[in-house]
Specification:
The chain is an alpha+beta fold. The chain has 4 helices and 5 strands; from the N terminus they run ββααββααβ. It has a 5-stranded antiparallel sheet, with no helix packed on it.
């Protein structure tokens, strides 16, 4: 835990520095181990993943750093990935069935297709967010500098 604001902080190792950015490899935290949805964060398999952080602490390759993702970002990410597709599905069903007056079977098919559309929308939003660096974990501190 980050004692400054009780936000969970993760630890990772800097594996590369490129143009003022640190490429950090990190493993699943204790919180991840109890999460049933951990496969969504670690999609490539294995227990580690990488992220790119602004090198605010002037870290070097091999340094262990602590980084955090704000609770607001975690909530927004969860909403986009898990809630938005459900809203699309239910909304499209009721739109087709009640407003347009389509049959139940057609409404169900449209609602299932809308889940796919929702994930495409999430992917587009994710790409836009990454490009603009709107949601970015922050470096908190250097846990252990590289030993020379």
């Amino acid at each position: 835990m980050n004692l400054q604001n009780d936000t969970p902080a993760d630890v990772g190792t800097v594996v590369d520095i490129q143009n003022g950015l640190a490429i950090v490899e990190y493993s699943r935290s204790d919180a991840c181990n109890t999460c049933k949805l951990k496969a969504f964060c670690f999609q490539k398999g294995g227990d580690s993943s990488t992220l790119t952080l602004k090198n605010e602490l002037n870290v070097k390759k091999g340094d262990k750093i602590q980084f955090e993702i704000s609770p607001q970002i975690r909530i927004l990410s969860s909403f986009l990935v898990f809630i938005l597709p459900i809203i699309f599905m239910i909304g499209s069903y009721f739109l087709c069935k009640s407003v347009i007056g389509l049959s139940e079977n057609i409404s169900i098919i449209v609602s299932l297709v809308s889940i796919v559309v929702a994930f495409i929308v999430v992917k587009i939003i994710d790409g836009h967010i990454k490009k603009k660096a709107l949601i970015q974990p922050k470096m908190v501190t250097v846990v252990s500098p590289e030993k020379n």
